[in-house]
Amino acid sequence: MSFPSLPNPFSSSSSSSSSTQSNTTSPSSAESTALKNQIMQTLQTEGNVQNAKYLIQKVNENCFNHCIPADASTSLTRSESTCLSACMEKYIEAWNTTSRTYIARISREAPGVTAAVGGAGGAGLGGLGGMQGPDVGKEMF
Fold it and tell me: Is the pTM of this model over 0.85?
């Protein structure tokens, strides 16, 4: 059984005409910039979500271990509830202070990096995830 000979599409000496080439055009510079900005915003949002999940996990671990005794009943007592509230507030405030301090240090040491970590004002709970616009410097909690 013999097969017909097919032209090699990778050969530089192909006999196909140039009219079969694709007429697609590359995106304009503005479209490329808009796409890049959209991707950066998506990544920053995902970073904020990951930071928030991590913070909640750590608050749960640390505050639960600190405020709830091993032999606790199935419902929270008033003192346990008060302890948890105070612990969470302190933990989140410490997180926000640490984030603001870190971002301020980064902005002093490498000014070009500031935009990548959310601006010099700090980003609160989102931490280093990169809040932009009017929310820069605001704490999420």
Answer: no
Q: How many residues does the chain have?
A: 141
**DSSP state letter for 119:** -
Cα separations (Å) of 95 from 24, 31, 59, 104? 49, 37, 10, 14
Residue 127, domain extent: 36-68+77-135
Q: Residue 124: is it exposed, middle or buried by C-beta count within 10 angstroms (0-12/13-18/19+)?
A: buried
Kindly report, residue by residue over 68-86, the tens digit of the pLDDT.
Answer: 988 878 888 999 999 999 9
Residue 48: count of CB within 10 angstroms of its CB: 21
- pLDDT top residue among 26 and 43: 43
Q: Confirm whether 50 is domain-assigned.
A: yes
The 10s digit of each residue's pLDDT in 100-112 is: 999 899 988 887 6
Count the domains in the chain. 1
For residue 18, being part of any structural domain is answered with: no
Is 121 a member of any domain? yes
